[in-house]
Recover the amino acids of this structure.
């Protein structure tokens, strides 16, 4: 089984995130960057499928600036076999549609993929549709928000779980599957894994290498543009009292004064 | 006036409220045309409600296809070609985002995702609330027929009747490269309101101390008719299920009233609730950052304060 995992370097959600005042984009230098947690779950899912299907290979695919190599190293040290990194200055400012197009092109450079795994929603953009968009571009089925994945020969079955309910979906391979928060607990890289990752092959592609037209991505190809971005004025603190046995009554009185109860 | 396509979200023969919000938003861009995709017989149950909420036209696309979400994408893509709409509006649910993203890829449209408002005039623009409301950003479409997903609850429904003229749409045959639905089960929500739609939310954090003690949070929530939420710390400690997590990696809520019990108020959590209209905090630690954004804070033991508040609420209800 030939498995591709899409990963993404994101700002750490435990640090404060900002929008760049000049272009309204996420200020990625202002925060620590980490491999998105949901991607670790996608890598874990890929490794479990690999372990259950002898002769499988897991390829990590990412796009982003040079520092995305940290996310690649993490995935390789967990046990992925190799990586492809699309990096090009012209990618900066790519919107969701052009990102999906670029990723689909890069996946196309991986020979005969059977399964593409991804996180269902990154913690930064929270678009929540990139896997489905990539699937549409590749002309393969999208099975999203997976709580469970079962690969059986040439088909894949997914238990899809969202706020609206549970749907069991099945499709013939090749297919794209996105995983949800509850799919698994990702493994920690072992020392051996970390050492081995240093020797695993990472192919770096430019736009030209991947056959992507620079006019279709980045700021040049953006189908929408941010016209303004402003921080909301911070909420100021109200009244604070020490409980002297009547804290609940004081809250109730406040709620009554605000006509909330 | 040009048409604005609105994808109808429906369940068991009823139109979801988010669709009426879409129809209201659509009127600021042009004439709303509702698009019903579903099994044969679906549209007749929905058309009266759609017309009453402003649908001038109702496209009826009924099909026996069982491939997942692809019929909606196929039908909308065909209508974008034939009707040249000003925009396509879809609800920003998990399914809606997926349909919209795939549609934007196929039609080469701008994709304005999870917006809280739209505006017409010189092209189509939309307002985004970013990082749990910490930033407000305006974006404009650089293409024709942008695909827009609207966050449920962001727009107040203003019902204005439309003509509701039905028009049949042929649904193309399945390409055979979709995922097939084997079975579906709706989520049983219980008696409490849905977290993201509730007007009052009571949340517990690490300070609650155990899964059993979350009963104190639930008790206050039930007295107020509120939804129950939890901080990431509480969820990670196994006190409460993940689907109730409020914060940067969970749900974003914006209720009239948010009561935080034993929640320190890390950025992780604040990002999911700081746009709440009124915030009440109870925490033992007087230095907890939650007090910086609370309209009213009590430094004290939540196990004393919350039951007393519950009693006061019950008294006032008589």
């Amino acid at each position: 089984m030939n498995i591709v995992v899409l990963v993404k370097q994101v700002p750490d959600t435990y640090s404060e995130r900002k929008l760049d005042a000049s272009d309204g984009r996420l200020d990625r230098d202002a925060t620590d960057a980490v491999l998105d947690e949901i991607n670790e779950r996608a890598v874990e899912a890929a490794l479990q499928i690999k372990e259950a299907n002898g002769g499988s290979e897991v390829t990590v695919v990412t796009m982003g600036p040079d520092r995305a190599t940290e996310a690649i190293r993490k995935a390789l040290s967990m046990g992925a076999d190799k990586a492809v990194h699309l990096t090009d200055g012209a990618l900066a400012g790519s919107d969701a549609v052009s990102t999906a197009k670029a990723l689909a092109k890069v996946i196309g450079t991986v020979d005969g993929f059977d399964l593409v795994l991804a996180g269902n929603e990154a913690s930064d953009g929270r678009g929540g549709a990139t896997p489905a968009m990539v699937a549409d571009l590749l002309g393969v089925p999208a099975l999203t928000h997976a709580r469970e994945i079962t690969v059986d020969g040439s088909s894949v079955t997914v238990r899809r779980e969202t706020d609206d309910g549970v749907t069991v979906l099945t499709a013939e391979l090749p297919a794209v599957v996105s995983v949800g928060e509850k799919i698994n607990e990702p493994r920690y890289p072992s020392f051996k894994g970390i050492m081995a990752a240093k020797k695993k092959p990472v192919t770096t592609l430019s736009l030209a290498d991947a056959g992507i037209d620079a006019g279709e991505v980045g700021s040049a190809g953006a189908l929408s543009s941010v016209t303004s971005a402003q921080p909301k004025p911070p909420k100021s603190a109200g009244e604070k009292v020490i409980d002297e046995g009547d804290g609940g009554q004081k809250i109730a009185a406040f709620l009554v004064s605000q006509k909330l109860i | 006036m040009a048409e604005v396509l609105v994808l109808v979200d429906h369940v068991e023969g009823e139109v979801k409220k988010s669709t009426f919000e879409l129809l209201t938003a659509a009127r600021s861009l042009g004439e709303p045309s509702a698009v019903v995709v579903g099994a044969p017989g679906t549209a007749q149950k929905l058309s009266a409600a759609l017309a009453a909420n402003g649908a001038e036209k109702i496209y009826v696309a009924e099909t026996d296809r069982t491939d997942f979400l692809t019929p909606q994408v196929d039908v909308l893509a065909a209508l974008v070609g034939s009707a040249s709409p000003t925009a396509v509006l879809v609800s920003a649910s998990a399914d809606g985002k997926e349909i919209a993203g795939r549609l934007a890829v196929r039609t080469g449209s701008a994709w304005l995702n999870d917006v809280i408002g739209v505006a017409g005039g010189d092209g189509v623009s939309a307002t985004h609330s970013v990082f749990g409301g910490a930033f407000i950003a305006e974006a404009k479409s650089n293409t024709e027929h942008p695909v827009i997903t609207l966050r449920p609850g962001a727009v107040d429904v203003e019902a204005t009747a439309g003509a509701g003229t039905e028009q049949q749409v042929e649904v193309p045959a399945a390409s055979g490269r979709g995922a097939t639905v084997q079975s579906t089960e709706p989520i049983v929500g219980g008696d409490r309101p849905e977290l993201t739609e509730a007007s009052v939310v009571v949340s517990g954090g690490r300070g609650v101390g155990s899964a059993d003690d979350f009963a104190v949070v639930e008790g206050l929530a039930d007295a107020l008719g509120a939804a129950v939420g939890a901080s990431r710390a509480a969820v990670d400690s196994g006190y409460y299920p993940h689907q109730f997590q409020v914060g940067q990696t969970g749900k974003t809520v914006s209720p009239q009233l948010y009561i935080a019990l034993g929640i320190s108020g890390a950025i992780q959590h604040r990002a999911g609730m700081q746009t709440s209209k009124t915030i009440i905090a109870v925490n033992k630690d007087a230095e907890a950052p939650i007090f910086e954004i609370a309209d009213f804070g009590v430094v004290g033991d939540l196990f004393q304060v919350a039951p007393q508040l519950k009693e006061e609420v019950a008294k006032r209800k008589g």
Notes: The mean pLDDT of chain B is 92. The two ends of chain B are 54 Å apart (CA to CA).
